[in-house]
Amino acid sequence: MLDQIGTIVLMTAIIVNFGAVAVAMGGSLVWRISFLMIAGLWTGFAVVLAAGGALLGNTGLVGPVPPIGVVVLTPLVAVAVALVLSPALRRMLLALPTDLLIGLNTIRIIGVFFLLLVAQGRLGGPFPQSAGWGDIATGVAAPLVVLLLIIRAHRGAPVIARVWNGFGALDLVAAVALGAMSADGAPLQVFHTGIAGPLPVQSLPWSLIPTVLVPFWLVLHGIIHVQLRRGTTSFPRLHLAGA
């Protein structure tokens, strides 16, 4: 039952994330459709890999890096290259509303699924605790950070936003690293979970988290970081009386 619920929730999260960014993007309709097509193709590719068992291998495709690690890194490298080659794409992404980018992280409360998998005895070790509680904390704090930046009643709001953004990004990096070090028989295995077999995140539906959602959220954190550093954040302003 948990896997069925997870499939519905994760697919909904993917659709909401990509759809919201596509709607908010500037530029022509062609850019938006292209973005959705690429995102859809990558999601389909990630599903096919997981369904075919390609993420279950213990031998790294690149040195000690396990297959799922390569799949996580691939979209990040592709986005980085695209940003270098396309100034227009850079401008569009950096012009995305900051409140939207932060707000989309609210969806990360789905980290509760990691804790439910622990309760079912399907996950163990430090990975699910770090990924679960870290995502929940990031997701719960996201709307509060947005509200704080909109009100601007607190002069430290931008600093708080930077701390939240750094924590959210570090949470994702830590989750990927701990996952790679917890996979049974993986070249990078350090932690032994006491649970036989592959990690649930190496197969559907949970593989959608590291292969699709994690790279997406890391890109969002990167955009937010640049916006905060440059002071180009975009929020509807609401100044409290007497503030």
In brief:
With 243 residues, this protein is mainly alpha-helical. 66% of the residues lie in helices and 0% in strands.
Commentary on this structure:
This protein has nine helices and no strands. With 243 residues, it is an all-alpha fold. It has one domain (2-10, 67-230). Helix 6 runs antiparallel to helix 7 and helix 8 (157-180) packs antiparallel against helix 9 (208-230). The N and C termini lie far apart (50 Å).
The rounded distance between the terminal residues' Cα atoms is 50 Å
Q: Taking Cα atoms only, what radius of gyration do you get, to the nearest Å?
A: 18 Å
Along the chain, the helix and strand elements come as: HHHHHHHHH
Please give the largest β-sheet. none
- Count up the domains: 1
Mean pLDDT: 84
Unreliably modeled segments: 238-243
- Which class best fits the helix and strand makeup? mainly alpha
Strand content: under 5%
Number of beta-strand segments: 0
Secondary-structure map:
Layout: H1 2-24, H2 29-51, H3 67-85, H4 87-94, H5 98-103, H6 112-119, H7 126-151, H8 157-180, H9 208-230
Helix pairs in contact: 1-2, 1-9, 3-4, 3-9, 6-7, 7-8, 8-9
